[in-house]
Structure formats: C-alpha cells, structure tokens
Amino acid sequence: MDGILLRVTGLMAGYTAPVAGPLGFELRRGEILGLAGPNGAGKSTLLKALWGGVKVFGGRVEKAPGLAISHQAQSFDDLRGVPLTGRELLALTGAVPAGLPPWLAERLDWRLDRLSGGQLQFLRLWACLAAPADIVLLDEPSNNLDRAGVDYLADWLGRAHDDQGIVIVSHDPALIDRVCTRVIEVGGVVEVPAQ
Amino acid sequence: MNLELLFDPLFRVPFFTGLLLAGLLPLIGMYLRLRGEWLAALAFAQMASAGALLAMVLGWPMLAGGALAALLAALAKGFAAAAGANAYALMMLLAWGAGVLLVANHPLAEQAGHALFDGQLYFTGEGHLLAVGLVCAGAVPVLLRLNRPLLLARFFPEFHQARGLDARPRLMLFDLLAGVVIALATVSIGVMAAFALVFVPPLVAYRFGRSWRVGLGLAALVGMGGYSLAFALSLAFDQPFGPVCAVLLVGLILLLGVKSDRL
Fold first, then answer.
1. Is the pLDDT of residue B58 over 60?
2. What is the mean pLDDT of residues A71-89?
3. What is the pTM of this model?
4. Residues belonging to chain B with any Cβ–Cβ distance to chain A shorter than 8 Å
C-alpha cells in the first residue's frame, strides 16, 4: 500500500441493496478526510462500509495490514441506569483521558447517567478519538455538542495527528471546512479542495 | 420460632452451598441486565428444573440433567439471538409444561418437583457444595476476563468488528457460563430463589452503584446478605426457603425505593 492506510475504489454499499456510492479515495497518515453531502446521500452507510458494518455491493476497500480502526457511531444506546463512570467507559476502548476538556475531566468519576447529553456525547467521541487506532471514523461528531464542545473538538482535530488518518462525516460545513485536509462530496462523488 | 436450628451442623452444607451461589448469581445478573437479557435467567432456570426432573425419572443424576438442559438453552439462546425475549418465553413455556407433566405423571418426580419449585435448599448435599465450589472457582476468573468484551458489546458494539476481531465466541462463553451457574442454582436452591438472586441484587446495584466495579461488589453483597437473612428466617419459622428469599428480596427493593422507571 506504500504509506496508504486505506484505498477505496468504486465503493457501493447498503443493507439489502446498494444505497450509497460509488465512492473512491485514498487515505494516508496525517490526513483528515471529510465526507460531505445532503441528508440521505449515504455518507454514514459509506463510513460503515469502511470497517465492514454494512454490505459492500461493489468496488473494493483495501486496508494496510494490521490496521486498527476506531469508529464513532452516530446513534447510541440509552445508557440510563447503568452504573458506569466516564473513566470506566474510556478504559473500555483504551482511550487516554489526558487532553480531555477541563469541564469533562473533572467529571470522569461521575456515573454516565449524571452527565448532560453534550458531555456524554463528547465522552463517547473521546473514547473513539483517543483510542489506539490507525484510522478514526467519525459520524456526525458535532451532534448534541454545544459550541464549546464543537470548538474543543475542532481545535483538537486541527492539531497534528501524523500517526493517524481520520474520516469525518458531517452535515456541518463549518466543521468540515475548519478541520479537513480534503473533502469529498458524497452523492455526486466530486472531489473538491478544502477551503 | 426455633433459633437453635441456625447453628445445627446439619444445615452448614446447604448454607454454604447457597451462600456461594448468592455471591455468584448477582454477578451473572449484572451482565444479563447489561445486555437486556435478564429474562433469560428465568428461562434457563425453568429449563434446568425440567431437565433435572427428566434426569430423575430416567435414573440419571439431577444435577447433570439440569446442567445439560440449561446448556442446551444457552446454546439455543445464542443461535436464536434475533428472537430475543420471544425465545426466552417459548423456553419457559416448554420447560414449565414439561416439568408439570412429569410431576403429574411420575411419582418419583413429584417430591423433587416440589423441592425445585419451592426451593428446599436443605436437601442439598456435599455433592452440590463441591460442584458449586468448583464452578465458582472457575466462573469468577472467567467473568473477570469477559467483563471488558461484555461491556464493549453493549457500549461500542462495532469495536471488535472494526478491528477485524470476532467477539461472538466470548459472548457465547458467557451464555454457557450463565446456563451452568443458573442450572446449579436451580437444582440447589430452586427455580424462583435462583431467579430472584439473579434479578434483584443487580437492580439495587444499578441504582446505587457509584461505578461498575462498585456495582458488582454491591450486587454480590446484597445477594449474600439477602440470602443469609432468608436462610435464617426460613429455618427459624420453618418455612420453605425459596418463597422467603423471593419475598425478602422484593421487600428490600420496596424498602430502598428503587424507582419504577429503572426497573
């Protein structure tokens, strides 16, 4: 693969029939690739196809050998009532707490059901972002985050991540423009340069 | 009320057999509740009781019959995962029907059937204690190893697959472990007492545990404390153990005021 983490060629994906694609790109370490497009374009489906979460109907997904992928799902289960702390949640994926925003770091030993929706979303995001992985796939990471959360996320993503490749699906053009080194418009599959 | 019975050596083996189970069953219950599968415990217990009765009628050891039936139930649960609670309900109906028919039509099964349904812990012998001790010694380290995969399956279900790993063997191992432990408990302390110890202590732990680790400890503590009290009360007042244990544990829930929206 010669320094390439992921090579996607003509990818068509879906559940019982192809609903998204074709998509093609290459991802290298240090890159942050944005998948943009309108609702229903199949961005999340294509993201899931990168790790095998949905059926691939056409094209190829080639991965570098021994690749570890971390995926942040857009939706998540109701966590109400489970006596799990933030620190325990991060330990599950091997994510390190160092670098968490102060407003969350000080609540790491709280139960998850005592956190606000935005705090919980950021924590789940962090569990994927800061886990040991070569590729991080983020699906609508700014959902449920307040302005402070989105800013912190954008700043963190904006810093150098030379050892990882990141793919972001978002309907938030401001976030995509701010952090991505490349953007692919899903639907028309036209590659456009980031601003 | 006869308090002297509490110190009778005759009841030491049954007490310690039940005490070990009362520490282990709530741990199994914590993970079953985590996976939304607590009803599976009742299905396993019913299947184990039917299997034990059938074994008795056929002249086999009840313990082996119960364990085999619960293992089959655990395997069926694994293969019928998509059916969810429907599969557990079907298992319960099948096991209940088969158990009652055996009791009604076979004189040998009648007394054992009452013991299984009423929870006559005092009939347990050293064979039960040995089996329970061995299973506990094996189950605790296995549960420790399964803790992370089980939590990951609940909170990050895509974690293993995204890394090219298959979590299903470990999840299946938990099903089998739960089946064996609940089968042993059913044969030793009865169907409903076993289910009560799987179901109630985790309710308290989910409500009051400050963390998962504390929750596990709290569940085991509630199970062992509730069991010990139920054992003493049933002996002192000459009552069947199973119903006393179930009523006492439900009373604990009412006393602690665990909110109905968390049940």
1. yes
2. 83
3. 0.88
4. 34, 148, 151-152, 154-156, 158-159, 161-164, 205-215, 262
Q: Which of A85, A126, A136 to mutate to test the interface with B (most CBs of B within 10 A)?
A: A85
Confidence of residue B2 (pLDDT cuts 50, 70, 90): low
By the 8 A CB rule, do B230 and B244 touch?
yes
Sheet arrangement for strand A18-28:
A18-28, A4-14, A55-63
Q: Mark yes or no for CB contact B211/A93 under 8 Å.
A: no
Say whether pLDDT at B228 is over 90.
Answer: yes
Q: Average pLDDT, whole number, for chain B?
A: 87
Q: How many CB pairs under 8 A join A and B?
A: 66
Q: Which tokens in the block code for residue A9?
A: 């060629």
- Rounded to an integer, what distance in angstroms lies between the CA atom of residue B88 and that of residue B107? 29
Find which of A63, A74, A87, A92 to mutate to test the B interface (most B CBs within 10 Å of its CB): A92
Token pair for residue A71? 């995926």
CB contact under 8 Å between A79 and B155, yes or no, is yes
A185 membership: H or E segment, kind and range: strand A182-185
Residues from chain A contacting residue B207 (CB–CB below 8 Å): 81
Q: Across the interface, do B162 and A71 touch by the CB < 8 Å criterion?
A: yes
**CA pair distance B160, B122, nearest whole angstrom:** 45
Three-state SS for B155?
A: helix
**Run of H or E including A21:** strand A18-28
Name every chain B residue with its beta carbon within 8 A of the beta carbon of A67: 164
Residue B46, domain extent:
3-262
Q: Identify the structural domains of chain A with CATH numbers, from first to last.
A: 4-192 (3.40.50.300)
Mean pLDDT, rounded, for A165-179:
89
Number of domains in chain B: 1
Beta strand pairing status for A190-192 and A4-14? unpaired
Q: What is the pLDDT of residue A117?
A: 85
Say which CATH number the domain at B49 has.
Answer: 1.10.3470.10
Using an 8 Å CB-CB cutoff, list residues of chain A that contact chain B.
51-53, 67-71, 73, 76-77, 79-85, 88-89, 92-93, 109, 111, 127-128, 137
* pLDDT tens digits along B151-206: 999 899 888 888 888 888 898 899 899 989 998 898 888 888 999 999 999 999 99
